[in-house]
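Q: My labmate handed me this sequence with no annotations at all. I'd like to see what the chain might look like in three dimensions before we decide whether it's worth expressing. Could you predict it?
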Amino acid sequence: MENKIKKAIIPAAGLGTRFLPATKAMPKEMLPIVDKPTIEYIVDEAVKSGIEDIIIVTGKGKRAIEDHFDHSFELEETLTRKEKFDLLEKINASAQVDIHYIRQKEPRGLGHAIWCARKFIGNEPFGVLLGDDIVQSEKPGLLQLMEQYEQTSSSIIGVQRIPSEETHRYGIIDPLVNEGRRIQVNKFVEKPKQGTAPSNLAIIGRYVLTPQIFDYLGEQKIGQGGEIQLTDAIQELNQLQKVYAYEFEGNRYDVGEKLGFIQTTIELALERQELKEPLTEYLKVIAKRLS
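A: Here is what I predict for the chain of 291 residues:
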């Protein structure tokens, strides 16, 4: 088994029910944050991490994702004719990535979505990036985990600290030994009941996994919510081979629910030079009106 991570899975088969009715006809992964679809931020992180091949696990009604990462010759010709080369460069950037697609035929959970990509991955370690978490950092979040994998040859799970009252919404780790930001894990717990979490270190949408994870996902064990949970398979893998958590550096934005999506849009808009000043002034007006 190679020590270099070259492939990554982006699960994008969810129904997006939290964003209905907007997601009735549009994949939630295509909802724009400022002027880029959410999934493009995720793909950008994979590419900047050095990933060579990406497989997106889609579901029914997700064709717009494939179209987005394809060439649009009519649009490109129009932009060229009108000499809008800056826009041409932006839309071409999303078509330069080598992306593959596979469909999850029924919604059976995150673990099942990862299992659907097993033939594409083969016997190699691989990355996983979940679309509900956007990570903005100097060094891409996935790359931080990939570097830890190269040191340990073990699965590495991205974690960050969250408020204790939110632990029931996440997979949580039970730490065994702290090695700086890298942590040996005693146990992984999927969405513990309020007040029972072993820590406030939550699993945050970035993973590097060894291919042995497919052995456990292949058992199709039903976990919380009646779905096949990736966290449950990681816990089983942890009994066979050491699995680490890594408290990665960077700002993580939760775009999987409405308030987080709105907050992310505002914060990333404020990073845009052309939007920062007018948006700041507008937010001051809103704050004054509400006070």
